[in-house]
Amino acid sequence: MIRVAILGQGLVATHLVIGVERIKRGELEPYGVPFARYRLPYRIEDIEFVASYDVDDSKVGKSLYEVAKKLVGDLLPVPESLKEIHVRRGIHLGSMKGLPFSVKGLEEELGDLPSAVAKLVDEFKELKPDVFVNVITTEPAEAYHDIEALRKAIERGETSASHAYAYAIAAYAKETGRKVVLINAIPSPLARDDAVVKLFEEANSIVVGDDGATGATPLTADLLEHLAQRNRRVLSIAQFNIGGNTDFLALSVPERNLMKEKTKSSIVEDILGYDTPHFIKPTGYLEPLGDKKFVSMHIWWKTFNGLDDELVVNMRINDSPALAGLLVDLIRIGKALTDKDVKGTPYLLNAFFMKSPGPRGAKNMARIVAYYKLLDWLKELGILA
Amino acid sequence: MIRVAILGQGLVATHLVIGVERIKRGELEPYGVPFARYRLPYRIEDIEFVASYDVDDSKVGKSLYEVAKKLVGDLLPVPESLKEIHVRRGIHLGSMKGLPFSVKGLEEELGDLPSAVAKLVDEFKELKPDVFVNVITTEPAEAYHDIEALRKAIERGETSASHAYAYAIAAYAKETGRKVVLINAIPSPLARDDAVVKLFEEANSIVVGDDGATGATPLTADLLEHLAQRNRRVLSIAQFNIGGNTDFLALSVPERNLMKEKTKSSIVEDILGYDTPHFIKPTGYLEPLGDKKFVSMHIWWKTFNGLDDELVVNMRINDSPALAGLLVDLIRIGKALTDKDVKGTPYLLNAFFMKSPGPRGAKNMARIVAYYKLLDWLKELGILA
Amino acid sequence: MIRVAILGQGLVATHLVIGVERIKRGELEPYGVPFARYRLPYRIEDIEFVASYDVDDSKVGKSLYEVAKKLVGDLLPVPESLKEIHVRRGIHLGSMKGLPFSVKGLEEELGDLPSAVAKLVDEFKELKPDVFVNVITTEPAEAYHDIEALRKAIERGETSASHAYAYAIAAYAKETGRKVVLINAIPSPLARDDAVVKLFEEANSIVVGDDGATGATPLTADLLEHLAQRNRRVLSIAQFNIGGNTDFLALSVPERNLMKEKTKSSIVEDILGYDTPHFIKPTGYLEPLGDKKFVSMHIWWKTFNGLDDELVVNMRINDSPALAGLLVDLIRIGKALTDKDVKGTPYLLNAFFMKSPGPRGAKNMARIVAYYKLLDWLKELGILA
Amino acid sequence: MIRVAILGQGLVATHLVIGVERIKRGELEPYGVPFARYRLPYRIEDIEFVASYDVDDSKVGKSLYEVAKKLVGDLLPVPESLKEIHVRRGIHLGSMKGLPFSVKGLEEELGDLPSAVAKLVDEFKELKPDVFVNVITTEPAEAYHDIEALRKAIERGETSASHAYAYAIAAYAKETGRKVVLINAIPSPLARDDAVVKLFEEANSIVVGDDGATGATPLTADLLEHLAQRNRRVLSIAQFNIGGNTDFLALSVPERNLMKEKTKSSIVEDILGYDTPHFIKPTGYLEPLGDKKFVSMHIWWKTFNGLDDELVVNMRINDSPALAGLLVDLIRIGKALTDKDVKGTPYLLNAFFMKSPGPRGAKNMARIVAYYKLLDWLKELGILA
Questions:
Q1: Residues D86 and D53 sit within 8 Å (Cβ to Cβ)
Q2: What is the 3-state secondary structure (H, E, C) of C194-253?
């Protein structure tokens, strides 16, 4: 059994809990779960959700069933079993600032951040989660790289919600001796923050991140590898993304958009071996598209004899389920890794699953390559047969 | 120095000779040449073209310069050095049947195929090629798998032009003790024909094939691998190709189209691990498109929670230069392999470079994966540092 | 009230009856019904289905409700009111030959075609339809242009099912004095057949056709008009269609495909004013796509200063509902036209709604233009205010 | 003969002068010139360029030949006849602010705007242009609607370059009695500014505008009309544009982007009859794309029976030549209209050729419709036979 706590009960978390419950009941094939074909030490059925945190007043106190009904009730059957877990109030720290939701953080409720962190640690001790999944809305955040600096930021209450959660989780792990996993599926730098990685190492735990690799970015990585392997000279890359979910709404706030842009652009030079002019970023918000975003990409290059070739990719893809499917395996593999005493941040896991793989300075690689490297490593560790 | 003989002086061969000559003169970057970034035992500058064969009356007797001027004179500068090689008459055996060209084969000129084969062997002995590149127009052809059956077909003059060339080349290699390479860049099964592979093995030589992997097929392979790695369930695949070069004209003859279709479809099950409905074949001929074909692809799949995602790929790509760029490396690596006493058909080389990798029964794999496996093998052999 | 009889209870007819019933109940907005915004003499609510004919053994004798449940039950709510009409056996004449369905025609049941025609006329006299909608599967058919020739073909039982239906309908109209409408939504030439048009004229009735203009063809017409208005010189047009409904299955039989091809290609020269190389035809059958076909189009042209521009259009569209929506208005306008004593074949109605507008020799025009010409004509006739 | 003065010697103007000169010499077909198929009172050969204005220090004083060589010398042959005209210093008023060019305006050179305007009027009197073409870089600008307010803005030197030019041109026309044409091919509101229209009316002259309709916008207009005519309910529209010319660079400055956005969005409600969520704006700058921009569009709608259809359009189009081709006819028709004593702003001409047709409050309509309305009007005026 793997006990899982969710941070941010939005669309991704909702797809995650619905999907896992439906797979448990045998109602759903585990499509979109990368390692479903392999025998991992934990089955999907071993995943148990024990807690969920959010700051949205319309969610806090509600059951996951109620939240799910509202978010995807017209699209998916919502299992009754989700009535048992209720959303708890989590950390805000301005992570939803500027968005049209009524929100309040635990730090606002309790007066300061250290009190909120202490309360979280207490709750965690009671709930005993093994794995934490960070899927809060994209927020502005910077890495610290220095534990002392991070600690002071927590004391002053001037940090990101992701960092505050990470800090509380590491404290919980250290104090209880429980080896835990934090999966950071959003752009905030945690697996790329030396300070956070150090805290998790000291707690014999792991932080996986950053920014779950779904949608256009991992595909672009593989397309660029495909071109690089043929020594085609890429002239420029344009990639547009438009969608109607909260993440796209959040990214229409300029400083959040910047967070995403940094993340996405790092693949170009890492994979091609040279930089080339590119425009890769979330482009806009269009409400009717909902969670099914539209992606358009133009890549052109010099082929043999100096001639030009062109590639246009258009996709219409469900944003949140794609990430939810990855989380199912990140939860299972993350837990298996701590069982094998892996600690800190596991680069090869990040390299396949994350847009900005930690640790700091780590390179992006083609996903198809990363996948086989990860397979080999899991076999070496005895996690896969 | 690598001495190269060309079979079929069409667009691909013309791009090959122009590109190599331009690179020799320092006029052209080696884009589209996959291993140009690595240090192979032979440089591109070491490639020397010593002969060219064709059956088109408007080409036989002409210099490669004259042929090139006519085919791509409005698109590319044609180096003067191509004036030195003249097109010789090669084997026809009906390979251009039904196409609007005036053609005659050496077997027609000399009365029968065995005489034509004997003449070719004599010419090869004089010209001393190390590498043969088969880029004749797509022709109907079947594998023999039995040397005796192939020998009898040659005697009767009832075989494909590709098989007749392969037979002559193996004889030349055996008689002279020269280790040679035959690169079969067209769909005719040579590297997948046990008989042909056996003949080359006996001559300490290699046959590389079949069907150079350019265009949509290798990209589809990598896209399918990308989807398979995420356990997305592919519902169907549609892939259209339309172009205006001789190969597309040839493929508008139904039996030739079938040759291509077989080749292309094998990737689906090999990579996904299951078959799924697909429509993958050259679709039509449209003269104004010329050598720059238009490709359109639709792939959709089930993602997590049973929802549907869709991907559309459109490309406008130069058909012949893409293959010519691959040939530059196939020539260099093929020669290096015979230097290392590799014989028969080298699967790992085929797996990256060919649509239907020999030997018979060999599987297709994602190109991104094949590339790294090939790299490792070349390092093991000492061909790459 | 308009009494409607359906010929061919496939997907299109099923969408038509469901949609009309749902609109009657106020459950559905009339999207896809071109003139829903205007006040026509007949409302959608005035449409009443009184009969349906088919040759598929699995449909004949079943209620429209049962047929609809089977065809689209997972996609749409099926109104109970469809339980009242049952499918009658219609004319086959080999129109489903080669397709994997168990079928039998009335002419086979009764021994010869004249008997079948006579039986139909009798049934029509009892059912009193005002409008007939021909949506049988695409069949091979040729125009007669000579009434005597058509009559003899009927006698010999050697004609198309569409022609046999048309003949029976004209006889019914003539014998009863009822002015009727035949809407030919498939490629068989009826509105372009002088003989058929003459028969309808003599019966003070109208035949509308041929081949309902949905999907890529009317869009291509408007795109070409757009380019022509700017004097851009179109170099080539490629248009691919792939789908998984019975019509695509039927078109995978070569002679049927040809029917469609003829229809579609006529737009190029009619609109551009010159012919240009084009590849426009249904391309393949891919079962999982179902009724939602995938269309891909590539058009390029010379712009000012001799430079090349390119346009790629990709669509994923529901094939049958698009046609069903047009039929709703064709039924209403067709009936209104006979009320105004229009007879023969109404070119301006055909020009907007049909791919191959009758009468024989009539030109295609851009749909956007045809629409306004039709509006003007309907106003002139007093059908629109 | 039509004497033409250019305002803004950028890519569009360069394509215009090269194209016209090449057509004069019989070297070029007039593709991209909408009315080339018709017999207008003026032939393309009648166009004579007599002056050109710019503020870029690297252009002022140079011949059009030198400017053209630098801008498109690698793409097009540059006629020698362009050596005779030299770029004069024009109005700046900050229109290039924030862009990486060294610029100076006549108003800076002479100390104030009224002096610059007076100098322009003097030059115009000497050069005697009939038609002025405004193709300066997109600049921020607001309409006045009040002649007095415009006059005061000129006096204070606080207006847009486009308004200053318009003011000078109207003064020149009034003082000399010459009937002139100002074609405003950029987004600045001139034909939509009551004040400017009034000034031109008083001078028996015309102002045509605003913002030449090339690229994605007129195509979107026709696509929306196509959908509206079938009563398909559009759910959302996303349209991305990315290019590498100065106009895209300019539009990466937020306030300029806004100018373009306003222009483009007005088509949605005007044509559909209702507003629908849309994202239509220039999206980014990517230098290697140069003048050949990439456009991607996603439109989806409800079809009959409430099902969803989707359309994706991708284009790779030459931005400047498309506009230059339109200008050839705007010059010819504009002059012909003043010959017929038309004055003010001619809505029907604007409706086909302009993105934001004047006068103020005028509606956008489908281009295919506008074209035929324009044809009718020109016939009525006796301009077309």
A1: no
A2: HHHHHHHHHCCCEEECCCECCCHHHHHHHHHHHHHHCCCEEEEEEEEEEECCHHHHHHCC
User: Distance between CA atoms of C251 and C261, rounded to whole angstroms?
Assistant: 10
Domain boundaries, chain A: 2-212+321-380, 216-318
Q: Say which CATH class A216-318 falls into.
A: alpha beta
DSSP of D48-67:
EEEEEEE-BTTTTTSBHHHH
Chain A residues close to D287, C-beta within 8 Å? 236, 277
**Cβ contact A312–D298 (<8 Å):** no
Place of tokens 């233009």: C369
Residue type, B73: G
Helix/strand/coil percentages in chain A, nearest 5:
45, 20, 35
Question: What is the rounded CA–CA span in Å between residue C304 and residue D212?
Answer: 15
Instruction: Name the residue among A332, A307, A251 with its Cα closest to residue A284.
Output: A251
Pair of tokens at residue A318: 């469900």
Which pairs from B376-381 meet CB under 8 Å and 24+ separation? Answer: B377/B348, B378/B333, B381/B337, B381/B340, B381/B342
H/E stretch holding A141? none
Query: Counting beta carbons within 10 angstroms of the beta carbon of residue D119, is it exposed (0 to 12), middle (13 to 18) or buried (19 or more)?
Result: middle
Q: pTM of the full predicted structure?
A: 0.95
Give which of B202, B185, B168 is closest to B331, Cα–Cα: B185
Q: What local confidence, expressed as pLDDT, does residue D281 receive? A: 80
- Are the beta carbons of D294 and A238 separated by less than 8 Å? yes
User: Which residues of chain A are within 8 Å of residue D236 when distances are taken between CB atoms?
Assistant: 286-289
* pLDDT, tens digit (0-9, with 9 covering 90-100), for D122-142: 999 999 999 999 999 989 999
Rounded distance between C-alpha atoms, residue D332 and residue D327, angstroms? 8
Beta strands in chain A (DSSP E): 2-7, 47-54, 87-89, 131-134, 181-184, 206-208, 233-243, 278-285, 292-302, 308-318
Chain B residue closest to A322 (CA)? B304
Superfamily grouping for domain D216-317? Dihydrodipicolinate Reductase; domain 2 (3.30.360.10)
pLDDT tens, position by position, A139-169? 999 999 999 999 999 999 999 999 999 999 9
Give residue-wise pLDDT tens across range B188-220: 999 999 999 999 999 999 999 999 998 888 999
Contact D296 A240 (CB under 8 A): yes
**Cβ–Cβ under 8 Å, residues D64 and D78:** no
- Would you say B51 and B89 are in contact if contact means Cβ atoms under 8 Å apart? no
Q: Which residues lie below 8 Å from residue A323, measured CB to CB, with a gap of 6+? A: A12, A15, A135, A185, A212, A214
Cβ–Cβ below 8 Å for A296 and D312: yes
Chains B and C form CB pairs within 8 A to the count of 66
Instruction: Choose among A101, C1, A229: nearest CA to B31.
Output: A229
* H or E element that contains C9: none
Q: What is the pLDDT of residues C57-83, one digit of tens each?
A: 999 999 999 999 999 999 999 999 999
CATH topology of domain A2-212+321-380: Rossmann fold (3.40.50)
Please tell me the distance from the alpha carbon of residue D47 to that of residue D1, in angstroms, as a whole number.
6
Q: Which of C235, C240, C285 sits opposite B283 (nearest CB)?
A: C240
ipTM: 0.95
Query: DSSP character for C100?
Result: S
Distance separating alpha carbons of residues C373 and C32, to the nearest angstrom: 20
Neighbours of C81 (CB within 10 A): 17
C274 contacts chain D (CB < 8 A): no
β-pairing verdict for B47-54 and B87-89: parallel
Instruction: Provide the chain B residues 36-55 that lie in CB contact (below 8 A) with chain A.
Output: 36-37
Q: By the CB < 8 Å criterion, does D212 face chain C?
A: no
Closest CA to A219 of B312, D300, D279, B306: B312
Please list every residue in chain C whose beta carbon sits closer than 8 Å to the beta carbon of residue B298: 242, 294, 296, 314, 316
